[in-house]
Amino acid sequence: MKLSCIRPQAGGAARNTRRKVLSLLELGAPVPNLRTRTVAVAVGGLLIASGAIAGTAAQANAVSSLAPAITAVSAASTGDLSAPAKKEIAMQLVCSAENSSLDWKAQYGYIEDIDDDRGYTGGIIGFTSGTGDMLELVQNYANTKPDNNVLKPFLPVLRKVNGTKSHEGLGQKYVDAWHQAAKDSVFLKEQDKLRDSMYFNPAVSQGKSDGLSNLGQFMYYDAIFMHGPGDSSDSFGGIRKSAMKNAKTPAQGGDEKTYLQAFATARKKIMKQENAHSDTSRVDDAQLKFLNEGNYDLHTPLKWKVYGDPYEIK
């Protein structure tokens, strides 16, 4: 982080700024750095954006004594996408891209082949028969409800087609069974649980570790469930590594906007390699739009487009 100083200068504007800083200092309040998103703490007329300061020994001691406060302020600048209101926004944003709707709770029964070589895509975030998460979902559902479970008989076939784009042994009977299961609250809860444990929670956790805002954590979430949580070059882990080669995360002392731009660039490169995901408007016209607007906290109202269609959360 950088050290920012407000120096006494001639002119009312400088004096007024200094007066505001000193007033906040007297109240023991954090002072926002006016040039960056970094939160600073005022000490002796100086704005401190890190634990280091060039000045007198007394000033250095003052900063040292305020280290816990500085840490707390820095932590407060990191978002928490798991907060209920923010998580709801995240679900709606994803649904606009995945299902052309904001009503994500209406998607539990959704299932079709979208020609992405991953077999069937179904449920609230697009679990797929070809990548393992649909198999895990149905297995969890069968474990929780072993009797009168309409999807349980398809487990052997799901194991067989896992890793392929094949529908052999599934077909319309499986689609009908999925629709029927979507009327069961147990199945809905299993979708929620797997979404959170496999995708949402890891994305938020990694985002917090990287010092990201709600927007940054959402960009991680949108990427991790589309590309998978692995470390290959075309997975979330690989995309993150690629971005970090070009920009530091906020936790590493980097600028969040610069890092998220690098992350978006790395992700779009991977998306364009897949025919089903070659349209990058969910990144360009939503995520990067919010980033350029400075809406790091995903505060409403939100307006964006996906595939040319406009959406709004008021």
UniProtKB/TrEMBL annotation:
GO MF term set: chitosanase activity
What are the GO cellular component annotations? extracellular region
Q: What biological processes does GO assign it?
A: carbohydrate metabolic process
- The keyword Hydrolase is assigned to this record: yes
Where does the source fall among the domains of life?
Bacteria
The annotated active site, in chain numbering, is 98, 116
Task: Give the enzyme class.
Answer: hydrolase
UniProt keywords, alphabetically: Glycosidase, Hydrolase, Secreted
Q: Which family does it belong to?
A: Belongs to the glycosyl hydrolase 46 family.
- Protein's job: Aids in the defense against invading fungal pathogens by degrading their cell wall chitosan.
What is the name of this protein? Chitosanase
UniProt organism field: Renibacterium salmoninarum (strain ATCC 33209 / DSM 20767 / JCM 11484 / NBRC 15589 / NCIMB 2235)
